[in-house]
Amino acid sequence: MRHIEKRICYLVLAILPFTLSGCVSQSQTERMADLFEQYPVSEMPNDWEKQGVSATYYGTSTIVFDDGVSSVLIDGFFSRPSIIPALFGQMQQIKRDQSNEIFSSHSKLEGVVVLHSHHDHAMDAPCIANYHDAYLIGSDSTLKILCGAKEIKRPKSPIFSQSEVSEPIVLGNFTVTLIQSVHGELPGIAAWYVGIEKHITEKLVMPSRLSKFKEGDNYAVLIEHPKGNSLVVGSAAVISGNIERATNREPIEIDWLFFGVGKLSKQASEQYLTALLATKPKNMTPIHWDSFSAQPQSGELPLPTWPFGNAADAIGLVLSYRAQYQSANSETGFTLLNYQQAVCVGCK
Cβ distance 215 to 198 under 8 Å? Predict the structure, then answer.
């Protein structure tokens, strides 16, 4: 098994110069600039704490929800290791100083909710939870990932009582419900390498390599708050009936939908977006469109390079389908977020 993994590493190294030099196409850069101009983020109201909940985006599917008293983090991926340490076992988790700096601008962190156990979702989560004495909420695979070699202080597994929708978890004024979901499609060899539908079976000590981070169980998450509700879907795929079950258990109004578009294909987009728009969100924001192997520069998230997708193409598909949907339904707002930008969930 290890010799196959080595061959894959060498293959990636062989195409790496083309990936980096072919960098981000000029057309993708220009189209994304146009999209950010077309769908800008509104300024947060001065009294947002009275009106709603702030949702601050940090790239991939990392979002901090904050009501001015407490906060909840989805995933929490800040380290963004480049391809070489990812392949050869040198991926380092977030350090305490960096975590303290990020969360100094947020209220007390109550919980870190991990959508699945791939490194771009789960790698930093155990350390962030430990540093801030917060619950780490995720699958058995996620709870096997250590902070370095240190155990998780406050692990919490979601409880599924004969349903695809978990029992609600209360975190401060937030109520979090996990919804069983699936990963977006990947090419065969990539799916094998990152362990789609596979689980982490032993404690995962860091530093480590990308291939150790198997998918584990996959979730979407419903985040309810008296001032505004959000639905977060990290991968570009869902089990549509499960989303409906979660939002129809009691009629729940979705103020903001955050949904992954990484590697979204034309073939998969209709079923995916139909399921999401059936929740009738008031607003929607695509996430996980950026490159997760490079750091933000000057407040801008890095764009993906070939062969890892095209953000402008994926968002274009979403906008096309949204236009068809809205011809027969009420208006759904659309906002694009860049690094550390925030929206107010529930604000008028």
Answer: yes
Q: Whole-angstrom Cα distance, residue 149 to residue 145? A: 9
SS3 state of residue 166: coil
**Residues contacting 131, CB < 8 A, separation 6+:** 96, 99, 100
Query: 126: which 2 tokens?
Result: 């155990």
Q: Could you give the 3-state DSSP secondary structure of residue 141?
A: coil
Distance CA(249)–CA(143), nearest Å, equals 28
The alpha carbon of residue 331 and the mean position of all alpha carbons in its chain are separated, in whole angstroms, by: 25
Region 274-297: what's the mean pLDDT?
A: 93
Distance CA 92, CA 112 (A): 19
**2-345, what's its fold?**
Metallo-beta-lactamase; Chain A (3.60.15)
Is residue 155 reached through a cis peptide bond, with omega within 30 degrees of 0 on the bond before it?
no
Q: How far apart are CA 254 and CA 268, in angstroms?
A: 23
Residues 222, 164: Cα–Cα separation, whole Å: 13
Confidence of residue 17 (pLDDT cuts 50, 70, 90): very low
Tokens coding 179: 């919804």
Strand partners, 241: none
17 burial (CB, 10 Å; 0-12 / 13-18 / 19+) is: exposed
In the DSSP assignment, the letter for residue 229 is -
* Position 327 confidence tier, pLDDT thresholds 50, 70, 90: low
- Cα–Cα distance measured from residue 105 to residue 56, given in angstroms and rounded to the nearest whole number: 10
Q: Tokens 């998450």 label which residue?
A: 221
Of 156, 283, 281, 172, nearest to 225 by C-alpha is 172
Do the Cβ atoms of 77 and 90 come closer than 8 Å?
no
Decide: 214 and 199 in contact? Cβ < 8 Å.
Answer: yes
pLDDT tens-digit readout, 54-79 = 999 999 999 999 999 999 999 999 99
User: What is the DSSP secondary structure assignment for residue 206, as one 8-state letter?
Assistant: S
H/E run at residue 100: helix 96-103
Q: Where are the domains of the chain?
A: 2-345
pLDDT tens track for 189-246? 889 999 999 999 999 999 999 999 999 999 999 999 999 999 999 999 999 789 988 8
Strand partners, 177: 222
